[in-house]
Design brief:
Layout lengths: L43 H22 L1 H7 L4 H9 L6 H32 L2 H16 L4 H10 L6 H24 L4 H16 L13 H20 L5 H14 L1 H13 L7 H24 L5 E3 L3 H5 L2 H40 L12 H14 L2 H13 L1 H25 L8 H34 L23 H30 L4 E3 L5 H7 L15
Antiparallel strand pairs: 1-2
Organism: Fusarium oxysporum (Fusarium vascular wilt)
InterPro entries: ArAE_2_N (IPR018823)
Protein name: Putative ER transporter 6TM N-terminal domain-containing protein
Length: 557
């Protein structure tokens, strides 16, 4: 929350600003040093995921350290840890189930194709040549102290290699690798099938050609560790901090809503003190956070029809919030962009004035340097210089001041509505009863009514004040007043008109979300298990062009 600033005179700039979106904001006192931005990203959710993934890798490591399990799984037990690093159990339960299935499918496909290849390769070796090679090996082994051990070592060293067998393995397994690559291109979400299948293929390219006879279990040395790792990841995801796409979508929407109130406080300060400059970098960072968080909601909403969750709301209920929430995000971004563009224009005007002063100082000398695109630069400088005159600045100040009182009450109503939405989203998947549910629903309905009321008051007030101010721009004949050598004073009205438009659209978008929220509060009372509603959506999701953990683009307005 923003602390009330202290001013010395009415309309002056405040002595202390604690809102971070302003250039002259007072930095909060910190007792210690902060981590760099690329490291300072851990939160409760991230720590839970880190613990879940670390637990899975730790369990797989224990299987390597315990000798009986190491012997049972095989010498490639370490491969299970690599699989967990490739596909950690950090996502939702359904995604981890898909990961487990894809790992097992990759193992099964490669193993099955390898068995077929081994059958074909052994059949290409002439029986007479094989028997002759065996006889020679037996004669050499008979002269050693341990014939059986000697024969095994010789076979593994390539004594029984045959050209026909090696070529068969190479061609058929190479064809399989090509098919897996084509499968990955056609269905990007099956990337793990291709990766795991390629890992198992190594056995049939390196070890299988050395064997003189058919051995259908040669691939189990790799298949078993991969399968064990997939099972450990699935169990850890189910038993340790399980999440669903519904709960993740609710958390994502709450994260976006949490970014809005502080900026709305900055809007109130900006209305009261138009001379304050907002930080363009902070506004750009806010837009980036909102849009990046919203992009993560895309794959979650696509998973809703095939999601299994426990809570008050089902996937169909949450899907109805997709479009209203998109409009809310779009209107909030538009409001932040309005302030950002105003700050850019203000900085451009200051730069233009500085260029003009510098140009006047060098007008009598030949030291002026001509830059690339100098003509366009001069025209832009001329526009900003001609539009920077007292009457225009007075109009801007009057327009903004006409929005202060109704705008402040409207923004407070918007903040209360955002808090009500966030509170409801938090209760939607809480696995405990809410004794104050009816009171909360009535309170949220009252907040919605207040939002509509303040929005109507804002529109009524500004629709009277702005036309009164605009009369100063037009003469008795209804034509724009103008002065020689300056830009039309009508441009002084535009900041106020644009701000009024954006401030009126934001509560409309918030009201749409809050209306649906209040409806769901009345409809969904009990906690229940929500099963997948449309399994056909699974095929659509697999055929989508995004990866296994897709990041969708925001929808166009």
């Amino acid at each position: 929350m923003v602390q009330p600033p202290q001013t010395d005179t009415e309309g002056g700039t405040p002595d202390g600003i604690h809102n971070p979106y302003f250039v002259d904001a007072t930095k909060p006192s910190s007792t210690g040093k902060k981590l760099p931005s690329w490291l300072d990203h851990f939160n409760a959710k991230g720590i839970k995921r880190l613990f879940k993934c670390s637990l899975a890798v730790w369990l797989m490591t224990l299987l390597m350290l315990i000798e009986p399990t190491l012997i049972a799984i095989g010498r490639a037990t370490f491969l299970g840890g690599i699989i967990l690093f490739i596909a950690p159990p950090a996502g939702i339960v359904f995604t981890e189930l898909i990961i487990t299935i894809t790992v097992l499918l990759g193992c099964a496909l490669s193993w099955a194709w390898g068995v077929i290849t081994m059958k074909a390769a052994v059949a290409t070796w002439p029986q007479a040549d094989k028997q002759a090679r065996f006889a020679t090996l037996q004669q050499e082994a008979a002269n050693t102290t341990n014939p059986l051990q000697y024969a095994k070592l010789q076979i593994l060293n390539g004594y029984m290699l045959d050209t026909n067998v090696t070529i068969t393995y190479f061609c058929m397994m190479g064809l399989f690798v090509y098919f897996m690559a084509r499968l990955r291109v056609a269905f990007p979400k099956l990337i793990l099938v291709q990766v795991v299948a390629s890992i198992v293929t190594v056995i049939y390219l390196n070890a299988a050609p050395l064997l003189p006879t058919f051995d259908g279990t040669v691939a189990k040395v790799i298949v078993i560790p991969c399968s064990v790792a997939a099972g450990i990841g699935l169990v850890c995801n189910i038993l340790v901090f399980p999440t669903s796409s519904t709960s993740e979508a609710l958390d994502g929407m709450r994260d976006i809503l949490a970014l809005m109130p502080e900026f709305l406080d900055a809007c109130v300060l900006g209305l009261k003190h138009p001379a304050l400059d907002m930080s363009e970098a902070k506004l750009t960072g806010l837009q980036t956070k909102v849009l990046s968080t919203y992009k993560l909601l895309g794959p979650l909403f696509r998973l809703l029809p095939i999601d299994l969750s426990v809570g008050r709301w089902g996937s169909d209920d949450l899907s109805t919030l997709n479009e209203p929430f998109r409009r809310l995000t779009m209107n909030f971004i538009a409001l932040t962009d309005l302030y950002r563009q105003n700050q850019v224009r203000k900085e451009t005007s200051i730069d233009a004035l500085n260029r003009t002063r510098a140009g006047n100082g060098e007008s009598n000398s030949d030291q002026r340097t001509v830059e690339l695109g100098q003509h366009h630069i001069d025209r832009a400088v001329d526009f900003h210089v001609r539009s920077n005159y007292p009457s225009r600045n007075i109009l801007i100040k009057e327009c903004i001041q006409s929005l202060v009182n109704p705008g402040q009450h409207l923004i407070e109503a918007c903040k209360e509505s955002l808090q009500a939405i966030s509170e409801t989203l938090n209760q939607a998947h809480a696995l405990r009863k809410n004794p104050g549910r009816l009171d909360m629903q009535q309170r949220h309905a009252a907040v919605r009514s207040k939002l509509y009321e303040q929005r109507d008051i804002f529109m009524t007030s500004t629709s009277r004040s702005l036309p009164e101010i605009s009369r100063k721009v037009f003469d008795e004949d209804g034509l724009l007043r103008g002065e020689t050598g300056i830009i039309s004073s009508f441009t002084g009205l535009m900041p106020g008109i644009l701000l009024q438009e954006h401030l009126s659209r934001l509560p409309d978008a918030i009201a749409q979300v809050l209306t649906r929220i209040v409806q769901l509060e009345g409809m969904r009372i009990k906690i229940r298990v929500w099963f997948p509603s449309r399994l056909i959506a699974l095929l659509r999701w697999i055929g989508h062009e995004a990866s296994l953990h897709p990041k969708c683009q925001t929808q166009d307005a």
